[in-house]
# Entry
Amino acid sequence: MQDKQFTDEELLELLKTGIEKDYIAPWFQPVMDPSGTIMHSAEALPRFIDPEFGVISPMTFLDVAFKHRLLGPIGEVLLLKTCEAHAIWQEREIAPGLVTINLSSLELQTDGIVDRIRLALDKAGIEGKNLGVEVVEATAYEDGCEKSLKAIDDFVAFGVKIIVDDVGSGETQIENLQRLHASAAKIDRMTVSVLGEDDAALVRVKTLAEACKKAEIPLIAKGVETRLQINTLVEVGCEGQQGFAIARPMPLDSFTEWLDLNTGWDTSDAA
# Structure
């Protein structure tokens, strides 16, 4: 992973070049059940593979990409490559039930987003039910939400699953999750990171787990890094876990090899 510090101007030029020269790639991180035997899904995470600086993480470049409206082009590359990856795994009979991408509100409100997702699925030859779209809860009520909600309705109509990301940091409303057709919800990593240290965080997670159970929305925790977090999440009824304690994000070849080595797993999706 790169350790060079870039200015925003340097990052902008790198991103423009990277999009043009195909330096953007998805890395995949699995979501497992607490026993570690059922893979619910795999999330595609953006990485910039620069020939000079190596792998540049999204924490370095996403703010600049957002500021300069490059999330759309980056997201389109990730969408196509993620669908193609799932098609490869299907052919080898090692595919997880679901592979997910993240869409910002700006992307959801972009004209043609529904057609782009449908075309990516068709081009790769996979079904809508194999793709999940991760969105934040604010998508249900922020400015312009009508356009976002219409896109989500259209995704759901051809089988795409919706995962609501970063819940638990505030007062999550189950009504928002239902409005977004949530097939799963993900606890934000900051809340997970303080489990065992912050009683208020534990109360929030318990309350959220109980509400999601009543609404029949599976709850997933991301950013899981310790055995204490794993055990605490199991106790409150969290159905899926994702993080370094489970597996780190991997490039396509490594993740494909990882799937090959674990063909005995049940790859039923939770969503």
Observations:
- The mean pLDDT is 90.
